Structures are given as C-alpha cells and as structure tokens.
UniProtKB/TrEMBL annotation, chains A, B:
Protein encoded by which gene: gmk
Superkingdom in the source lineage: Bacteria
Enzyme Commission number(s) of this protein: 2.7.4.8
Family annotation (InterPro entries): GK/Ca_channel_bsu, Guanylate_kin-like_dom, Guanylate_kinase, Guanylate_kinase_CS, P-loop_NTPase
NCBIfam families given in the database record: guanyl_kin (TIGR03263)
Pfam families: Guanylate_kin
Record-given protein name: Guanylate kinase
Catalyzed reaction equations: GMP + ATP = GDP + ADP
C-alpha cells in the first residue's frame, strides 16, 4: 500500500487560492482536498462537509481536548482546524491530501509531518490584491484596511514554504501546481512502492 | 543574477535516456545539456562538441591533474568526464544544466554539489531492455551478456537518486521530466530571486 503526500497551500485572501485548488483537483487523480472544521457562521451557498464542517465552540473544544486536530487556530473570534483522522486515513490509502491553511497551521503541520510539501501562492501585484479585497462586497474602509493588513501579515511568511507560485496567469499557475504534485509522485521513495514489481524484474 | 539547478540523469543503456533528454531540451527554455569529454573512439554520425568532446588519453589526464573535472570515471579502457568550467559558467548565468552520467559520476557530483537534483530512468520491462540491447547491431552473445550485466549493475543504484522515472510511455516520461524541472524552478529559494521585485511591492 503506497502512502500519499500531504500538501499545504497557503495564500493571502485575494490571491485566488480556492479557484486554483479547485482547478488542480479537477485535473489530477488520486487527490483529496481536506475539509476543515470551523466555528464561524455558515455563509449563503456554503455546504457543510464540502466547504467546512461547521461546529459550535463546545464541540470544537472537545475535539481539541481529545487531540483530534493536526492543526488548529483561533482567528478573530472563531476556531479553524484540520481533523487528524480525515487526513491520516486518506494518506494511508495512498491519496495525496491538500490542506488550505494559514501560516500558523502550516507551521504546526510541518513539525508533525516533516515530509509534507508546502506551497505559498502570491497575487501578481499589490494592485490586483487590493482590487480583489475590495471586490468582496464589503466596501467599509476599515474592513478593507484590516484585510490588507492580514494579507501582508500572511505573505510575510512566504519564505517558510518549499514552493512559491505566482497567480499571474491562472492556467500557468494551475500547471505549475500540477508539476509540483507530479514531481512529488516521482520521488524515489514514493516510486519504490509503485514500481516494486518492475524493479524486482529488472534486477533479477 | 539567478542561479541554475544542476540535474543529473542516469539510466542503463537501453532505457531511452538520450531520446528523452533530447525531447526535454526541445520542450523547455533555459536548459543546457552538458557535453562530456571522453577518450573513446568517435562513432559514425557523432559530432565533436555535440555528442562528446573527443580527446586523447594524455589530454584527459592533463585535465584530471589540473582539477578540470567535476566528475570522471574510467569505463573499460576509456575515460569519461564532465568539465568543471562548462557547468559552472552555465549555472552562474541562471541556466539549468543537465548531465547524463553514470552512478559513479552521480555520486561524485552529489558530494560536490548537494543542491543538484538526480533522476534515474528505468526501462518499462526486462524484455524491452533485452530487445533494445540486442537491437544495437552487435549480436555477439558475449557483448549482449556484458551489456546486460552492466545495465543491471547501473540499475542497482536507482535508490541513490531523488527521482525515478519509468520510460514506458515516451510522451508521459518527457512530461514527467518536465514536471521535475518546472517544480525545481518554483522552489522558494529559487523564486526568491525571480520574484524579488514582486515580493518587495506586496510587502511594502
């Protein structure tokens, strides 16, 4: 049984991460995007179990106490976390698993799973980032300023990541993410399992 | 000035390495295939400076004495080696450089250049390998048996390499090599140079 790779993808709001990850998932087999738990309010159009597992504070804290999270963080008044069982089951079945988390979660995962591969996505320019943050329909200047500060704070951690992808041309960025995943599947320690019979035959 | 990556590609005779590397080079910019020096006899169709630099034993040994090789080896009665200056100049100009060498050369390069990326190419089956070794127009059974022993000896070192590519479907194998090279260009320490201005603007 082969063992999958855990990919961590982080980006500031407005970098286009979710669209990229959706396109990546559609273009590759053997790939699971992990669904996080959160205590924040479900937005219109969001689906429990697809976008997030929406739980209340008491349930989230019970899971923390039971060591049920690979990583979790409190952002403003809400918890966000990655349940341990979902990820570990998929990896042991040979699936690659992708987590969309922030730099704090990425740090926690890296220390627990040093073989994970982390990718940071940057927007193509400051101007594009500002436009995307304004286009979210919340034009209150304080909210926009806070989103911008959060984005800069998130981006200041880019150098902790293994790979850096710029979302300038969408299709190229998807192709680059694909290359990172495909290359990871060609690593010798991963291929050793997949090619066991071939290698035995060649060296006989 | 960005710094290129050194790729080491090894394979047994009959794995299709040279055709793969030619196709890879044609499909990617910024990529140099290093031409080795050798003392072996030039074969019909081979071009000095394209396939090899053909030199005599005295010249080769003079270069060894002058520390002119990144790696060199004696195979049967002939020397093969990679000249230091060619590689170092291309890398410092930001070119990726690909070396086609055997496992002994790969070991020498790895110890000198630990950031190099090594790839081993396997043929798709024992039967294909045998057919390709026979198809070289030298049907003397002893020669074929010796080539087979050499191939198995070379393949026994596959686990020392970072990546393992199986040349089963030619186009897929080329795409896999491309993915390894593209992913290497997305590594954060490499992108840091390429994206310096973007990052400065985003974090300002």
């Amino acid at each position: 049984m082969s063992i999958g790779t855990l990919f961590i993808v982080s980006a500031p709001s407005g970098a286009g991460k979710t669209s990229l990850v959706t396109a990546l998932r559609e273009s590759l087999e053997g790939f699971t995007v992990s669904v996080s738990h959160t205590t924040r309010t479900q937005r219109p159009g969001e689906v429990h179990g697809r976008d997030y597992f929406f739980v209340d504070h008491a349930e989230f804290e019970r899971m923390i106490a039971a060591d049920g999270f690979l990583e979790h963080a409190r952002v403003f008044d809400n918890y966000y976390g990655t349940a341990r069982t979902t990820v570990e089951t998929a990896l042991s079945e040979g699936q690659d698993v992708l987590l969309e988390i922030d730099w704090q979660g990425a740090r926690q995962i890296r220390s627990l799973m040093p073989d994970s591969i982390s990718i940071f996505i940057l927007p193509p320019s400051r101007r594009t980032l500002e436009e995307r943050l304004k286009a979210r329909g919340q034009d209150d200047p304080d909210t926009i300023a806070r989103r911008m500060r959060d984005a800069i704070s998130e981006m200041s951690h880019y150098s902790e990541y293994d790979y850096l992808v710029v979302n300038d041309d969408f299709d190229r960025a998807v192709a680059e993410l694909r290359s990172i995943v495909i290359a990871s599947r060609l690593r010798t320690r991963r291929q050793f399992e997949a090619c066991k019979d071939l290698i035995a035959g060649l060296l006989a």
